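User: For my dataset I need records formatted as: sequence, then structure tokens, nothing else. Please produce one.
Assistant:
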Amino acid sequence: MAAKTDNETIIELINKQINGELTSEEQVVLEDWLKNPANQMLYDRLTDKRLILKKRFEYDEYNVDKAWQKVNKRISPKLNIRRWISYAAAIILPLALFYVVYQLSEVPQSNTSPMAESIQPGQRKAVLVLSDGQQVELSAADTTIQTHAINIQIDSLGAHYEGGAGNNEQRYNTIQTSRGMEYSLKLADGTKVWLNSESSLRYPENFTGNTREVYASGEVYLEVTKNKEKPFYVHFNDKRIKVLGTEFNVRAYPDETEDLVTLVEGSVALSAANDEVVLKPNEQATCRANKAIKVNTVNTTLYTAWKEGRFVYRDAPLEQIVNDLARWYDVEIFYQNKGMKQERFSLNTNRRANIQLILEALELTETVQFKVSGRNIVIQSVN
């Protein structure tokens, strides 16, 4: 029987072998550990994905030393290697990050529930409500909508407003996404907008007057075209953002207790009640009812990755993660114990992934279990 080997040492040895840095003495230690069939199986699965792991190392922005400190606090020396990696996956060490990526990219088909197979990821779809009340379903099909000297070009990239120059009559359209939908559009001034699931944007067909004003709900990302003569305003939940030209994300779902404004580029002024702040790049404003606006420096990728087709979370509450999954996959979430909502996880995966694979990755933490029935998902505590 192979001698019991420190888990941290094994992880380091696997990393070294993948990078071609393993010494002959270390090779003997690793081979001894591999005599256990279960260890050999895990090793084979990891090293089959060594190229992905290399990319994972290049992408990883986490401080490994700090991550190790978190691991040491959360696990005991008696835990086996599988359980150790499960805990590590929850806080995202480089190797454990890869292990989660592996689970999401190549879980045997037999492990996937037939019920979960019927749950599909969202699509590029929306409903456009024109100023006269007419509703048009938008998809990837190429078409042109003409209204009041405005042409709306629809293609696989979204909706694009063209024309309208010299037209001083301001008519508002509204674009809406339901659960399981996302969409993007380019406004008449060239501003680009991305809408996440369960979101909407009310905007004029053509910007007239001295300002450009739109009204958002849910989650939207905007790249505002610069025009010093016409400042751009975004209104949401009795709040307002003023901007000349920038990129930022607004998350303002009616069923959430806080609104978030995350600035990627440029500068914006956020007003709420009697409070106002000016944000700089990589800053995020948090707005709660009857409280002053709170500003923090953040990794903007965590709040804008959805626009690039990914779910990315770092030490996020389970409630936030599953709420996003519910909107995107159009499912209902139920908790066995509501206290589980504040359990924290980290995850990085494609939004097009099978939901069963995402749930299995979260289950690696041995903290939660998911039971799928139709479009309902019940979250159960392991302990």
